[in-house]
Amino acid sequence: xxxxxxxxxxxxxxxxxxxxxxxxxxxxxxxxxxxxxxxxxxxxxxxxxxxxxxxxxxxxxxxxxxxxxxxxxxxxxxxxxxxxxxxxxxxxxxxxxxxxxxxxxxxxxxxxxxxxxxxxxxxxxxxxxxxxxxxxxxxxxxxxxxxxxxxxxxxxxxxxxxxxxxxxxxxxxxxxxxxxxxxxxxxxxxxxxxxxxxxxxxxxxxxxxxxxxxxxxxxxxxxxxxxxxxxxxx
Length: 234
Hints:
The protein is an all-alpha fold. It has helices at 17-44, 66-91, 97-115, 126-155, 159-178, 185-222; strands spanning 6-7, 14-16, 92-93. The chain has a 3-stranded antiparallel beta sheet. Helix 1 (17-44) runs antiparallel to helix 2, helix 2 packs antiparallel against helix 3 (97-115) and helix 4 (126-155) packs antiparallel against helix 5 (159-178).
């Protein structure tokens, strides 16, 4: 009987079903929490405009719901991204460590942007500098993580996941560098967040789909042919 905890891939890297499913759960929850919090707290913040104001302003020093946003919009989604990373490490065995380490750093730095609130009236303050640094490191860690994941998926024979990661990296870089040419700064920042979390969601759905498909195949292969009684272990 095939092992339901693995995707059978012959000599290629093994894809673990349970780890893929847990990775998908963490990633999907992170994306949902961030965007739901962004909509809610953007509505609650007086005079806030998604087109013109930065996401960080929702958790800036003196914001109406500073710590509520920082916890629900940055810290918890970042922690879930870190959890997503730890499960990615076990999804692609034995080659998923590089992508997992970088993705964990991305999640940790994402959470750190909520720990260190920006001060809009003092851009040189210690907290503001750390907030900006954490934000930059989060993006810089994710870019190679997505490329390592593409390489892992390619070795595992998953062309779909390979192209998803490569296209997402290009889309994030484009939106982060050229997005301001398309409209206000708030729009370009949200395009970058949208591209990043779209990658998270699509990767999660792909992993979940692969896990479900391979588990069904394993179950089908384990069933005896018609008319042949199943073996009874004694």
